[in-house]
Amino acid sequence: MPRLLLLLPTTTYRTAAFVDAARRIGADLTVASEQPSTLEAANPAGLLTLDFQHPERAADQAHDFARRSPIDAVVGVDDDTAVVASVVAARLRLPGNSVEASQAARNKHKQRELLAKHRVPAPQFALHPLARDPQELARSITYPCVLKPLHLSASRGVIRADSPAGFVAAHARLVAILGGCDTEFLVEDFVPGYEVALEGLLVNRRLHVLAIFDKPDPLDGPFFEETIYVTPSRAPAGLQKTIAACAERATRALGLVEGPVHAELRYNERGPWLIELAARPIGGRCSAVLRFGEGVTLEELILRHALGMPIPSLVREQAAAGVMMIPIPGAGVLREVRGVADAKAVPLVEDVQITAHPGERLVPFPEGSRYPGFIFARGERPSAVEAALRESHRRLTFTLDAA
Question: What pTM, to 2 d.p., does this model score?
């Protein structure tokens, strides 16, 4: 059987979904993490430690491993491991995105430069040193604007400013969040409009759209915590085609050719705008809402494609489906969550998963990035799914102690 090298950070939510998918397709699986497992010595072909912070060293380690256990494909599951996967694949001479393309998808400034070069509709932007006097810089900015870190994920550190005073305050928060790990940041025009997410799979440069999600809650700032995703989109069919075309132009601009794509776009009277594009699948546990053909998961599609195995179907099931990333209820230490059974009892709700544990410190956006849980629903109409998610969330009560 073909051997798959799966790059799974120890903090990811994605482990079970990808490991289960590898088992379903019958692949020999090697799981690589950045921290050694106590079981690694007992399962040397199945567990591997790689230095995710230094991709070239990770590639050396993978190359040494492949001498003993040949690898047929390598897959990363998030932004950072997507870059590591491309470096490893290049070293092992395996198919995949180029290192340059993966790095462009990971670095927001490089991505913006390539989108502008290829005239993909996207916000106007400028790169600034973090050390520059924020009051001086604030006087030169067009408002409203959005401050963005170059590498953080899940909207962490993304802040809207509507005035010079707001810019200075946002800059101070961003400096504290970055903690010296970056020396520059982006300032972008704020693009008004409705936001959607596109999930896709690139096969030999062609983008296959797997789903377009509506985001019914406004994402106008000052912070950009996401909540509800519902598919199929209720946008007109013609608009959905232009959204897909915009995302495909972006993949070409970045040079991506294979594998999963997750894109965030907005649309208004001027059409769709590319806000972010990542060379990895949808984050958290959100992929559980997606089923293809006869119940095939998103992770199975990704692994089959990586290994060159037949893909039964790229067509999503007909039912509407949605997920709520449960909003962070406030800053503090989680004591308990009540109402989970009542939340699960809402018609159309399939599951309520509380991923935060008692004693865990919850940190709201923009400093935080980890949601306390997820709610999943499925039904005939997107509107009914959305209503079920909201009612389920209404039944939950989070009790926090002061941090």
Answer: 0.94
Cβ atoms 253, 115 nearer than 8 A = yes
Tell me the C-alpha distance between 86 and 257, whole Å.
12
Fold of 319-403: D-amino Acid Aminotransferase; Chain A, domain 1 (3.30.470)
Superfamily of domain 124-189: ATP-grasp fold, A domain (3.30.1490.20)
**pLDDT tens readout for residues 232-289:** 999 999 999 999 999 999 999 999 999 999 999 999 999 999 999 999 999 889 999 9
**385, 230 Cβ separation under 8 angstroms:** yes
Give residue-wise pLDDT tens across range 75-86.
999 999 999 999
Q: What is the DSSP string of 314-373?
A: -PBPSSEEEEEEPPP--SEEEEEEE-HHHHHTSTTEEEEEE-S-TTPEE--TTT----SE
Find where tokens 């440069």 sit.
Answer: 205
C-beta of residue 382 within 8 angstroms of C-beta of residue 322: yes
